[in-house]
User: Fold this.
Amino acid sequence: MPASIEPAVPANAGFPADTAAQDRIYSQVAAEYAAPLARLIRAHEADPALQADLRQEIHLALWRSFASFDQRCSLRTWVYRVAHNIAATHVLRSRRRKVDLLVSLDEIDVAAEGDVGAELDAARVLQRLNELIQNLKPLDRQLMILHLEGMAADEIAEIAGISSANTHTKLHRIRQVLAAKVNAGDQP
Assistant:
């Protein structure tokens, strides 16, 4: 956590004391976490118009949440928890509106893309990986996104609300399945 946020929070005071403090903390968080939040949004929503809606929902929820932030976890954990909860709610709402349902890890269907061998460049592999991640169930998607953001499994467990052991197991399984699907190409 950057030192610039720490002085804004007195050790024995509520967080934040007023809307000015709430605005100040939100501004700092919005600037510091802009890139990770953008990646989280892209991972949860493919449609650019709906990405803008989701971004707005997340930022509004973050600003509102700072009124009740009591520092029982790090600010980073708080930001990711709020953002992931809003994104998961967004996905579930979208899921209800769509005919296509999300699939489990074992049911991910790799769409035909031609030869996925050595001819694929890094950008295309990354695009394919993003598509696969978007097809994961919300919890699996959340775990993978946080893992790709470089978070430790213990932090991910705290954000997702599951045990550390379960987080390690799920991450290992998700990585194996995604690697197999990316490497398999068109093959069943």
User: Anything to note?
Assistant: The chain has eight helices and no strands.
